[in-house]
Amino acid sequence: MRWSNLFVPTLREAPGDAEAVSHALLVRAGFIRQLHAGHYSLLPLGWRVHNKVAAIVREEMDALGGQEFLLPTMHPASIWKKSGRWDTMGEIMFRLNDRRDNEMALGITHEEIFSTVATELTSYKELPQIWYQIQLKFRDEARPKSGLLRVREFSMKDSYSFDIDSAGLDKAFEAHREAYIRIFDRLKLSAMPVEASSGAMGGNSSVEFMVPCDAGEDDVARCDSCGYSANVEKATSALPAIEDKPGPDQVERFATPDIRTIEQLTTFEGGAEASRQIKTLVMVIDDELTLVILRGDHQLNEQKLLDATGAVAIRQAGADEILSALGARPGSLGPVGVEGLKIIADEALRGRSNMTTGANEDDWHVRGVSIERDVTVSSWADLRQVTSGEQCPLCEAPLRLVRCVEAGHIFKLGTTYAEKFDLSVANAEGAQTPIVMGSYGIGIGRNMATVAETHNDDNGLVWPVSVAPFEVVITTVKNDETSMNAAVSIYEELKRRRVDVVLDDRNARAGVKFADAELVGIPYRITIGPRALKENEVEFTERRSGETSRIGVDQVVDFVTGTVNDAR
Ligand SMILES: [Zn+2]
């Protein structure tokens, strides 16, 4: 490839809306262009990187025995209704109607479609199976942003395992876990496997692969001492026990004029510190008004509430809904004496007494509240968000919250889909047995963006050799005949040795060509300049370190081929 024929529209400035480094650099360096919010065109350099990421994923999937498919991306609504997810996916799913008014969806994931194919499995002898595809998915994100990190249309590898029993699933899950670790290693991403919520995917166990990165949207609670790590949607911590002083025999009302917050009540005379207050949230959980109570100094994690209730949608109740249900406004709400509403309590409140909370009358609170005695708790759950510095649940060392990008997610689905789609095979005794499934995802574009996000410097992108758009650029300082002859001969020989090389033969100033090569992030540059050439030498520069050395024209091909092969 000659740069003079390449379409690489580099820009001096990043787009104004680029918050993430990867977004800014991929646009500036001419890899991607936005068509509309959340939808990007991959330009030739972007597509080259994309294909290299996909090739690594494909190799590792093939190595664990995966068989590649390509399924449709437009699905009939009926198949999603069969699994129940037509209703539970909510607004995140793109839906449309065809000319006959048939309802359709654009695929957000493919459990349903692969399950339909799997109905043709009939005997345990055909199991296990691992099926995968690399294909487009659609998600109607509320706020697409950060370039390729959060989009509405994206390429993903999704695979599915089909086994006769849970031991088989464990094996397929472990094989994927190991394959993902190899994939991230080859992408030079320091991804850590963490415990995660299974969310809308269903099933009972999942592991996310998280890459520490400021542009991420997830927080992982991590213990540096024992290695415990979990998404805050799932993480717990050990709380020091609180001893409550004996309280009164029954709750006491007291006036709290203009006191509206937990914080205000901590300094109000007769109030209480936050850990001795009950925080009362009024939530609408799948259309049912519900009280959610936590310790005053704790925050609700909404995903935990979703997981605990199995709900599809939750939202905070509006002021009018709250007033008509409880007779008071936020700031004076509490669970004491509430009848007819479900009350979900966080585990940290278990056994607590002598606590303070709102009286469900504006400007009044109650104290001396004993949870067990005074509150009709419908169910208990771990709902609180873990914060930095709390104790590790395993070893009690302090936890640290790390901002991360989710680079992959693997799920044990169990028999959820077998039940919905009547997936069963005859076992060795001839009895019908439900198929046990797993589901495993890794975003191609997102991983490309995550590599860009974590591999760059002031001059631009610094791709690892494994996914760089080109491994080597040959840059001519002057395009005189001697320089061009030397450049073309090195170029041809490197191509012959299967090095992915581009020849920057543009009639431009050397400084411009160097800056472009750095911005684009090509790992190695061979510079052909008249001065060195007179001594039968060329310059070799490593993008990452910026180090330059002279190499003889006769040795450069061997040296570069060896360097590239070692780094692949
Ligand atoms: Zn620990």
Short overview:
This protein has 568 residues and is α+β, with helices and mostly antiparallel strands. Strands 3, 7, 8, 9, 10, 11, 12, 21 and 24 form a nine-stranded mixed beta sheet that branches. A five-stranded mixed beta sheet has the order 16-14-15-17-20, with helices on both faces.
Question: What descriptors fit this protein?
Answer:
single chain; 568 residues; alpha+beta; BirA Bifunctional Protein, domain 2; YbaK protein; Rossmann fold; 3 domains; nine-stranded mixed β-sheet; five-stranded mixed β-sheet; binds zinc ion
Shape: globular
List unreliable stretches of 5+ residues. Answer: none
Name the CATH architecture of the largest domain.
2-Layer Sandwich
Counting H and I runs of at least 4 residues, what is the number of helices?
16
Number of strands: 31
Return the CATH class of the largest domain: Alpha Beta
Describe this structure in words.
With 568 residues, this protein is of the alpha+beta class. The chain folds into 3 domains: 11-188 and 416-453, BirA Bifunctional Protein, domain 2, CATH 3.30.930.10; 252-381, YbaK/aminoacyl-tRNA synthetase-associated domain (YbaK protein); 470-567, Rossmann fold. Helix content is 27%, strand content 29%. The chain is built from 16 helices and 31 strands. Strands 3, 7, 8, 9, 10, 11, 12, 21 and 24 form a 9-stranded mixed β-sheet that branches. A 5-stranded mixed β-sheet has the order 16-14-15-17-20, sandwiched between helices. The longest helix is centred in the first third of the chain and has 21 residues, at 166-186. It is globular. Zinc ion (ZN) binds at residues 223, 225-226, 228, 392, 394-395, 397.
